Amino acid sequence: MHHLLVIVINVALSLFGVGFVIWGSYRILRRNPDPGQLLVKWAFTVLLVLFCFWLAIMLGPVGPFVIVVMAVILSIMWTPHIAETLLSPLTSLWDGGKEAPDKKPYYSIALARRKMGKPLEAVVVVREQLAKFPNDLEGVLLLAAIQAEDLADLPGATITLNKFCASPNVPSRQVESSLRQLADWHLKIGADVESARAALQQLVDRYPGSEISLRAEQRLAHLGETAKILMDQHDRQPIALPEGVQNIGLLDSTEFLRPKEIEPGKLAAAYLQQLAAHPHDAEVREKLASIYAKDFKRLDLATMELEQLIAEPRYKPKQVINWLNLLASWQIELGADVATVTATLGRIVDLYPDSAAAEVAQRRLEHVKGELARQKNTPNKKLGVYEQNIGLKKNRSLRDEL
What range does the domain containing 373 cover? Predict the structure, then answer.
Protein backbone atom coordinates (compact mmCIF):
# COMPACT_ATOMS: atom_id res chain seq x y z
CA MET A 1 0.00 0.00 0.00
CA HIS A 2 2.83 2.36 0.92
CA HIS A 3 4.63 1.50 -2.32
CA LEU A 4 1.45 2.27 -4.34
CA LEU A 5 1.07 5.65 -2.60
CA VAL A 6 4.66 6.57 -3.45
CA ILE A 7 4.04 5.68 -7.10
CA VAL A 8 0.88 7.83 -7.22
CA ILE A 9 2.68 10.79 -5.65
CA ASN A 10 5.58 10.48 -8.08
CA VAL A 11 3.24 10.30 -11.05
CA ALA A 12 1.31 13.31 -9.80
CA LEU A 13 4.48 15.34 -9.30
CA SER A 14 5.71 14.29 -12.73
CA LEU A 15 2.45 15.37 -14.35
CA PHE A 16 2.59 18.65 -12.45
CA GLY A 17 6.14 19.22 -13.62
CA VAL A 18 5.25 18.43 -17.22
CA GLY A 19 2.22 20.67 -17.01
CA PHE A 20 4.27 23.51 -15.55
CA VAL A 21 6.82 23.15 -18.33
CA ILE A 22 4.11 23.19 -20.98
CA TRP A 23 2.41 26.21 -19.38
CA GLY A 24 5.68 28.10 -19.08
CA SER A 25 6.62 27.23 -22.65
CA TYR A 26 3.25 28.44 -23.90
CA ARG A 27 3.58 31.76 -22.07
CA ILE A 28 7.09 32.25 -23.36
CA LEU A 29 5.99 31.41 -26.90
CA ARG A 30 2.94 33.72 -26.71
CA ARG A 31 4.90 36.68 -25.41
CA ASN A 32 7.87 36.27 -27.74
CA PRO A 33 7.89 38.63 -30.75
CA ASP A 34 9.60 35.95 -32.88
CA PRO A 35 7.93 32.55 -32.21
CA GLY A 36 9.83 30.91 -35.08
CA GLN A 37 13.19 31.60 -33.48
CA LEU A 38 11.91 30.25 -30.17
CA LEU A 39 10.74 27.00 -31.79
CA VAL A 40 14.24 26.56 -33.24
CA LYS A 41 15.67 26.98 -29.72
CA TRP A 42 13.31 24.32 -28.38
CA ALA A 43 14.27 21.88 -31.11
CA PHE A 44 17.96 22.54 -30.48
CA THR A 45 17.42 22.09 -26.72
CA VAL A 46 15.72 18.71 -27.19
CA LEU A 47 18.49 17.47 -29.51
CA LEU A 48 21.18 18.79 -27.17
CA VAL A 49 19.66 17.06 -24.13
CA LEU A 50 19.33 13.75 -25.95
CA PHE A 51 22.86 13.98 -27.31
CA CYS A 52 24.38 14.90 -23.94
CA PHE A 53 22.60 12.08 -22.14
CA TRP A 54 23.77 9.61 -24.79
CA LEU A 55 27.29 10.95 -24.57
CA ALA A 56 27.24 10.79 -20.75
CA ILE A 57 26.21 7.15 -20.90
CA MET A 58 28.91 6.38 -23.44
CA LEU A 59 31.70 8.16 -21.56
CA GLY A 60 30.84 6.72 -18.16
CA PRO A 61 32.72 8.59 -15.36
CA VAL A 62 33.15 11.69 -17.51
CA GLY A 63 29.40 11.85 -18.10
CA PRO A 64 28.58 14.29 -15.25
CA PHE A 65 30.96 16.87 -16.71
CA VAL A 66 29.09 16.63 -20.03
CA ILE A 67 25.82 17.27 -18.23
CA VAL A 68 27.30 20.34 -16.50
CA VAL A 69 28.43 21.73 -19.85
CA MET A 70 24.94 21.09 -21.25
CA ALA A 71 23.38 22.90 -18.25
CA VAL A 72 25.61 25.94 -18.79
CA ILE A 73 24.69 26.11 -22.48
CA LEU A 74 20.99 25.78 -21.72
CA SER A 75 21.13 28.41 -18.96
CA ILE A 76 22.72 30.87 -21.35
CA MET A 77 19.97 30.15 -23.89
CA TRP A 78 16.93 30.16 -21.60
CA THR A 79 17.69 32.40 -18.61
CA PRO A 80 16.50 35.64 -20.34
CA HIS A 81 13.19 34.03 -21.32
CA ILE A 82 12.57 32.47 -17.91
CA ALA A 83 13.48 35.66 -16.06
CA GLU A 84 11.20 37.72 -18.28
CA THR A 85 8.29 35.35 -17.70
CA LEU A 86 8.71 35.34 -13.91
CA LEU A 87 9.31 39.07 -13.53
CA SER A 88 6.87 40.35 -16.15
CA PRO A 89 3.97 40.85 -13.66
CA LEU A 90 6.19 43.21 -11.67
CA THR A 91 7.85 45.03 -14.56
CA SER A 92 4.48 45.51 -16.29
CA LEU A 93 3.55 47.93 -13.51
CA TRP A 94 6.13 50.38 -14.91
CA ASP A 95 6.43 49.66 -18.63
CA GLY A 96 2.84 48.56 -19.30
CA GLY A 97 3.86 45.09 -20.39
CA LYS A 98 3.93 43.70 -23.88
CA GLU A 99 0.19 43.39 -24.33
CA ALA A 100 -0.88 44.99 -27.56
CA PRO A 101 -3.14 48.05 -27.08
CA ASP A 102 -6.78 47.80 -28.07
CA LYS A 103 -7.30 48.54 -31.71
CA LYS A 104 -9.24 51.72 -32.35
CA PRO A 105 -9.71 54.12 -35.25
CA TYR A 106 -7.60 57.24 -35.60
CA TYR A 107 -9.00 60.34 -37.27
CA SER A 108 -6.17 62.82 -36.66
CA ILE A 109 -5.09 62.68 -40.31
CA ALA A 110 -8.66 63.23 -41.48
CA LEU A 111 -9.11 66.19 -39.13
CA ALA A 112 -5.86 67.69 -40.38
CA ARG A 113 -6.96 67.31 -44.01
CA ARG A 114 -10.27 68.93 -43.15
CA LYS A 115 -8.60 71.92 -41.50
CA MET A 116 -6.34 72.30 -44.53
CA GLY A 117 -9.41 72.68 -46.71
CA LYS A 118 -9.13 69.23 -48.32
CA PRO A 119 -12.48 67.64 -47.46
CA LEU A 120 -12.35 64.99 -50.20
CA GLU A 121 -9.02 63.67 -48.90
CA ALA A 122 -10.47 63.72 -45.38
CA VAL A 123 -13.43 61.64 -46.57
CA VAL A 124 -11.07 59.05 -48.03
CA VAL A 125 -9.17 58.74 -44.75
CA VAL A 126 -12.36 58.48 -42.69
CA ARG A 127 -13.76 55.81 -44.98
CA GLU A 128 -10.55 53.80 -44.62
CA GLN A 129 -10.98 53.81 -40.85
CA LEU A 130 -14.69 53.00 -41.07
CA ALA A 131 -13.88 50.02 -43.27
CA LYS A 132 -12.06 48.58 -40.25
CA PHE A 133 -14.50 49.90 -37.62
CA PRO A 134 -17.89 50.23 -39.37
CA ASN A 135 -19.91 50.98 -36.20
CA ASP A 136 -17.71 53.74 -34.81
CA LEU A 137 -19.96 56.71 -33.99
CA GLU A 138 -17.13 59.26 -34.03
CA GLY A 139 -16.13 58.30 -37.54
CA VAL A 140 -19.69 58.21 -38.85
CA LEU A 141 -20.47 61.66 -37.43
CA LEU A 142 -17.18 63.04 -38.77
CA LEU A 143 -17.91 61.69 -42.25
CA ALA A 144 -21.44 63.11 -42.19
CA ALA A 145 -20.16 66.46 -40.89
CA ILE A 146 -17.65 66.75 -43.73
CA GLN A 147 -20.37 65.88 -46.23
CA ALA A 148 -22.91 68.32 -44.82
CA GLU A 149 -20.74 71.23 -43.73
CA ASP A 150 -17.73 71.13 -46.05
CA LEU A 151 -19.03 69.54 -49.24
CA ALA A 152 -22.61 70.93 -49.00
CA ASP A 153 -23.84 67.38 -49.57
CA LEU A 154 -26.68 67.16 -47.06
CA PRO A 155 -28.37 64.24 -48.92
CA GLY A 156 -25.10 62.30 -48.68
CA ALA A 157 -24.87 63.03 -44.95
CA THR A 158 -28.47 61.88 -44.55
CA ILE A 159 -27.69 58.58 -46.29
CA THR A 160 -24.59 58.08 -44.12
CA LEU A 161 -26.45 58.59 -40.84
CA ASN A 162 -29.57 56.66 -41.85
CA LYS A 163 -27.44 53.71 -42.94
CA PHE A 164 -25.61 53.80 -39.62
CA CYS A 165 -28.85 53.99 -37.62
CA ALA A 166 -30.38 51.11 -39.59
CA SER A 167 -27.77 48.70 -38.22
CA PRO A 168 -29.35 46.50 -35.50
CA ASN A 169 -26.16 46.52 -33.39
CA VAL A 170 -26.00 50.28 -32.91
CA PRO A 171 -26.83 51.39 -29.32
CA SER A 172 -29.92 53.53 -28.88
CA ARG A 173 -27.91 56.47 -27.50
CA GLN A 174 -25.83 56.59 -30.67
CA VAL A 175 -28.95 56.46 -32.84
CA GLU A 176 -30.38 59.39 -30.88
CA SER A 177 -27.19 61.43 -31.25
CA SER A 178 -27.06 60.75 -34.99
CA LEU A 179 -30.68 61.63 -35.74
CA ARG A 180 -30.67 64.73 -33.54
CA GLN A 181 -27.55 65.92 -35.33
CA LEU A 182 -29.21 65.22 -38.66
CA ALA A 183 -32.22 67.29 -37.61
CA ASP A 184 -29.90 70.18 -36.70
CA TRP A 185 -28.26 70.07 -40.12
CA HIS A 186 -31.62 70.02 -41.88
CA LEU A 187 -32.58 73.18 -40.00
CA LYS A 188 -29.29 75.10 -40.05
CA ILE A 189 -27.97 74.13 -43.49
CA GLY A 190 -31.01 73.14 -45.50
CA ALA A 191 -33.67 75.25 -43.72
CA ASP A 192 -35.84 72.17 -44.19
CA VAL A 193 -38.27 71.90 -41.28
CA GLU A 194 -40.09 68.84 -42.61
CA SER A 195 -36.90 66.80 -43.00
CA ALA A 196 -35.85 67.77 -39.50
CA ARG A 197 -39.27 66.72 -38.24
CA ALA A 198 -38.95 63.39 -40.05
CA ALA A 199 -35.55 62.72 -38.46
CA LEU A 200 -36.91 63.36 -34.96
CA GLN A 201 -40.05 61.37 -35.66
CA GLN A 202 -37.86 58.33 -36.34
CA LEU A 203 -36.84 58.41 -32.67
CA VAL A 204 -40.47 58.56 -31.55
CA ASP A 205 -41.42 55.64 -33.78
CA ARG A 206 -38.34 53.54 -33.06
CA TYR A 207 -38.32 53.91 -29.25
CA PRO A 208 -41.96 54.43 -28.20
CA GLY A 209 -42.55 55.03 -24.51
CA SER A 210 -38.87 55.67 -23.75
CA GLU A 211 -36.91 58.69 -22.53
CA ILE A 212 -35.49 59.00 -26.03
CA SER A 213 -38.95 59.36 -27.55
CA LEU A 214 -39.89 61.87 -24.81
CA ARG A 215 -36.88 64.05 -25.62
CA ALA A 216 -37.71 63.83 -29.32
CA GLU A 217 -41.32 64.84 -28.64
CA GLN A 218 -40.13 67.81 -26.58
CA ARG A 219 -37.93 68.88 -29.48
CA LEU A 220 -40.74 68.41 -31.99
CA ALA A 221 -43.02 70.59 -29.88
CA HIS A 222 -40.70 73.59 -30.29
CA LEU A 223 -39.46 72.84 -33.79
CA GLY A 224 -41.60 75.62 -35.25
CA GLU A 225 -40.00 78.24 -33.00
CA THR A 226 -36.50 77.07 -33.91
CA ALA A 227 -37.37 77.05 -37.60
CA LYS A 228 -38.70 80.60 -37.42
CA ILE A 229 -35.49 81.85 -35.82
CA LEU A 230 -33.36 80.10 -38.43
CA MET A 231 -35.50 81.35 -41.30
CA ASP A 232 -35.20 84.90 -39.98
CA GLN A 233 -31.43 84.49 -39.98
CA HIS A 234 -31.46 83.31 -43.61
CA ASP A 235 -33.84 86.04 -44.78
CA ARG A 236 -33.22 89.15 -42.72
CA GLN A 237 -35.73 91.90 -43.36
CA PRO A 238 -35.21 95.53 -42.40
CA ILE A 239 -37.12 96.45 -39.27
CA ALA A 240 -38.91 99.78 -39.34
CA LEU A 241 -38.56 101.49 -35.99
CA PRO A 242 -41.24 103.99 -34.96
CA GLU A 243 -40.21 107.55 -34.22
CA GLY A 244 -39.35 108.07 -30.58
CA VAL A 245 -41.33 110.27 -28.24
CA GLN A 246 -40.24 113.88 -28.34
CA ASN A 247 -39.31 115.67 -25.12
CA ILE A 248 -39.78 112.52 -23.04
CA GLY A 249 -38.16 114.19 -20.04
CA LEU A 250 -40.90 116.86 -19.94
CA LEU A 251 -43.83 114.43 -19.84
CA ASP A 252 -45.80 114.05 -16.64
CA SER A 253 -46.00 110.27 -17.04
CA THR A 254 -44.34 107.64 -19.22
CA GLU A 255 -46.64 104.83 -18.21
CA PHE A 256 -48.09 104.64 -21.73
CA LEU A 257 -44.64 103.81 -23.11
CA ARG A 258 -44.42 100.50 -21.27
CA PRO A 259 -45.02 97.47 -23.50
CA LYS A 260 -48.38 95.93 -22.79
CA GLU A 261 -48.31 92.51 -21.23
CA ILE A 262 -50.23 89.72 -22.91
CA GLU A 263 -53.39 88.97 -21.01
CA PRO A 264 -53.18 85.69 -19.07
CA GLY A 265 -56.39 84.46 -20.68
CA LYS A 266 -54.93 84.79 -24.16
CA LEU A 267 -51.73 83.08 -23.06
CA ALA A 268 -53.72 80.23 -21.53
CA ALA A 269 -55.67 79.83 -24.77
CA ALA A 270 -52.45 79.71 -26.80
CA TYR A 271 -50.90 77.19 -24.41
CA LEU A 272 -53.97 74.96 -24.62
CA GLN A 273 -53.74 74.94 -28.41
CA GLN A 274 -50.05 74.05 -28.19
CA LEU A 275 -50.78 71.18 -25.80
CA ALA A 276 -53.55 69.89 -28.03
CA ALA A 277 -50.94 69.42 -30.77
CA HIS A 278 -48.05 68.42 -28.48
CA PRO A 279 -49.35 66.95 -25.21
CA HIS A 280 -45.83 66.14 -23.98
CA ASP A 281 -44.59 69.74 -24.09
CA ALA A 282 -43.57 69.98 -20.44
CA GLU A 283 -42.42 73.60 -20.68
CA VAL A 284 -45.76 74.85 -21.97
CA ARG A 285 -47.77 72.71 -19.55
CA GLU A 286 -45.81 74.11 -16.62
CA LYS A 287 -46.41 77.67 -17.89
CA LEU A 288 -50.13 76.95 -18.20
CA ALA A 289 -50.22 75.62 -14.63
CA SER A 290 -48.45 78.79 -13.47
CA ILE A 291 -51.09 80.96 -15.12
CA TYR A 292 -53.85 78.95 -13.48
CA ALA A 293 -52.21 79.31 -10.06
CA LYS A 294 -50.87 82.87 -10.13
CA ASP A 295 -53.30 84.70 -12.36
CA PHE A 296 -56.59 82.81 -12.02
CA LYS A 297 -55.98 81.51 -8.47
CA ARG A 298 -57.30 78.14 -9.63
CA LEU A 299 -55.36 75.60 -7.61
CA ASP A 300 -57.48 72.75 -8.97
CA LEU A 301 -56.55 73.48 -12.59
CA ALA A 302 -52.89 74.10 -11.75
CA THR A 303 -52.79 70.83 -9.82
CA MET A 304 -54.34 68.97 -12.77
CA GLU A 305 -51.62 70.20 -15.14
CA LEU A 306 -48.73 69.46 -12.78
CA GLU A 307 -50.11 66.02 -11.92
CA GLN A 308 -50.01 65.11 -15.61
CA LEU A 309 -46.30 65.96 -15.63
CA ILE A 310 -45.59 64.15 -12.36
CA ALA A 311 -47.42 61.02 -13.51
CA GLU A 312 -45.27 60.66 -16.63
CA PRO A 313 -42.63 58.02 -15.72
CA ARG A 314 -40.15 59.13 -18.36
CA TYR A 315 -39.31 62.42 -16.69
CA LYS A 316 -36.19 62.57 -14.54
CA PRO A 317 -36.45 62.58 -10.73
CA LYS A 318 -35.06 66.11 -10.61
CA GLN A 319 -37.98 67.38 -12.69
CA VAL A 320 -40.59 65.49 -10.66
CA ILE A 321 -39.12 66.85 -7.41
CA ASN A 322 -39.22 70.38 -8.78
CA TRP A 323 -42.89 70.04 -9.77
CA LEU A 324 -43.87 68.60 -6.38
CA ASN A 325 -42.12 71.45 -4.58
CA LEU A 326 -43.77 73.94 -6.93
CA LEU A 327 -47.19 72.40 -6.27
CA ALA A 328 -46.60 72.59 -2.50
CA SER A 329 -45.67 76.28 -2.81
CA TRP A 330 -48.84 77.04 -4.76
CA GLN A 331 -50.90 75.14 -2.21
CA ILE A 332 -49.46 77.29 0.55
CA GLU A 333 -50.00 80.51 -1.41
CA LEU A 334 -53.60 79.64 -2.29
CA GLY A 335 -54.61 78.58 1.20
CA ALA A 336 -54.69 74.80 1.08
CA ASP A 337 -54.89 72.97 4.40
CA VAL A 338 -51.95 71.45 6.25
CA ALA A 339 -52.87 67.89 5.27
CA THR A 340 -52.79 68.71 1.55
CA VAL A 341 -49.37 70.40 1.67
CA THR A 342 -47.99 67.65 3.91
CA ALA A 343 -49.18 64.96 1.49
CA THR A 344 -47.51 66.71 -1.45
CA LEU A 345 -44.14 67.08 0.28
CA GLY A 346 -44.44 63.56 1.66
CA ARG A 347 -44.55 62.21 -1.89
CA ILE A 348 -40.97 63.42 -2.39
CA VAL A 349 -39.87 61.49 0.68
CA ASP A 350 -41.76 58.38 -0.43
CA LEU A 351 -40.54 58.47 -4.04
CA TYR A 352 -36.90 59.31 -3.35
CA PRO A 353 -36.22 58.36 0.28
CA ASP A 354 -32.41 58.36 0.09
CA SER A 355 -31.98 61.58 -1.87
CA ALA A 356 -30.96 65.05 -0.74
CA ALA A 357 -34.33 66.33 -1.96
CA ALA A 358 -36.05 64.01 0.55
CA GLU A 359 -34.04 65.56 3.39
CA VAL A 360 -35.01 69.06 2.23
CA ALA A 361 -38.66 68.04 1.97
CA GLN A 362 -38.50 66.49 5.45
CA ARG A 363 -37.19 69.76 6.91
CA ARG A 364 -39.85 71.71 5.06
CA LEU A 365 -42.54 69.42 6.45
CA GLU A 366 -41.54 70.52 9.93
CA HIS A 367 -42.33 74.15 9.05
CA VAL A 368 -45.50 73.76 6.97
CA LYS A 369 -47.73 75.30 9.63
CA GLY A 370 -45.41 78.28 9.93
CA GLU A 371 -45.42 78.84 6.15
CA LEU A 372 -49.21 78.72 6.07
CA ALA A 373 -49.44 81.16 8.98
CA ARG A 374 -47.08 83.64 7.30
CA GLN A 375 -49.05 83.35 4.06
CA LYS A 376 -52.31 84.20 5.86
CA ASN A 377 -50.70 87.29 7.39
CA THR A 378 -49.45 88.48 4.00
CA PRO A 379 -51.95 90.82 2.28
CA ASN A 380 -53.12 89.51 -1.06
CA LYS A 381 -52.44 91.58 -4.14
CA LYS A 382 -55.49 92.89 -5.94
CA LEU A 383 -56.18 91.14 -9.20
CA GLY A 384 -56.61 92.97 -12.46
CA VAL A 385 -59.97 93.69 -14.00
CA TYR A 386 -59.60 91.21 -16.85
CA GLU A 387 -62.05 88.35 -17.16
CA GLN A 388 -60.89 85.59 -14.81
CA ASN A 389 -62.00 82.68 -16.95
CA ILE A 390 -60.93 83.97 -20.33
CA GLY A 391 -59.15 81.23 -22.17
CA LEU A 392 -60.95 78.65 -20.07
CA LYS A 393 -64.38 79.19 -21.53
CA LYS A 394 -63.32 79.30 -25.15
CA ASN A 395 -60.89 76.38 -24.82
CA ARG A 396 -62.63 74.22 -22.24
CA SER A 397 -63.01 71.42 -24.77
CA LEU A 398 -59.28 71.50 -25.49
CA ARG A 399 -58.44 71.38 -21.79
CA ASP A 400 -60.80 68.47 -21.23
CA GLU A 401 -59.07 66.46 -23.92
CA LEU A 402 -55.66 66.75 -22.21
Answer: 266-401
